[in-house]
DNA sequence: GCAGGTTGAGAACGATCGTTCTCGACCTGA
DNA sequence: TCAGGTCGAGAACGATCGTTCTCAACCTGC
């Protein structure tokens, strides 16, 4: 009854949740089967290996995160100045970090765990961060600020994610926002 | 002939190198024995488990990193203004990121890999980052700048480490330094 | 030289994991 | 009703890993 696309969706969602909570290597395919309800046979029909399942999870997460950021900025500062929209990105981070199961940026985490052994994981992460940097660069250009600011804001955003994940508090988003406010005003 | 302390040292050094290169879970105790020359029996006499070996590696790395930072700042900007010393921290990052086997901050990496399953790893990482923040807070106070700046600089530093590790280039240190220069001048 | 303890190399053990296979239940179409 | 195919649950397999054990070689003190 449940169709193939729904199985894929449930598998990806369960895998994302488990990878996020426990890391990639600590999560077995059995755990993904149990959490998603999708039997092993179907998992391996849709994703030929765990590595390809991880790749699919990261691809899905990439579009998820990017649309969440742009959606938040549009709805909270869509009518504000470009500078307001830049700062809204950090307000988004604050909301994200406060979610109860926040465990950091999946791309930074998987790069830390597997980056030494998987070039694929690194390159998916690089593409994701590059896309976010380009989004910030667009806002920076609209604000008439120098392009180099986009890289600085990206370092701030990544730093907020890494710091918040380690500390277990969303404070880093507030610090990053304050720093960003100084940078866009300079 | 080789004495117990030397074995411990070689084991810690080999484990640090391997954990850094491949992550913790991908490195077996056999690989640490082969790389260090310390037999398994001695490894287990000095470190009752792999988890305690990791803990010891992180403790060693904590003092290593902190003395490297303060040593660099003292020797490169010891006679400069407090603001120069703050910026020298980011010059240190640039040198570090350019090392050929740089693979990111071990505390951020292990937190990403094991933070979901090991509270110990998280708390060692938090202590390390807190110590660095306190060092920055000292420089900030000497410069007569508001204490909140220390947290912002810490986010910048963590962001530079995470970004450089993912990108494989030391550029992020330059971006972080430029942002820090604006913040300390504000 | 010799008993008694210590050591190292590697085998062994038990657990886990990614992946594949078995086999019985169930559906389908005539 | 029946043949043929599909599917799910779980067993099975081979590899890896953390940890412990075996056993022969080697010290040490006398």
From TrEMBL, chains A, B:
Domain HTH tetR-type: 5-65
Superkingdom of source: Bacteria
Name of a matching Pfam family: TetR_N
Location of the DNA-binding region in this protein: 28-47
Keywords: DNA-binding, Transcription, Transcription regulation
Protein name: TetR/AcrR family transcriptional regulator
Origin species: Catenulispora subtropica
Taxon lineage: Bacteria, Bacillati, Actinomycetota, Actinomycetes, Catenulisporales
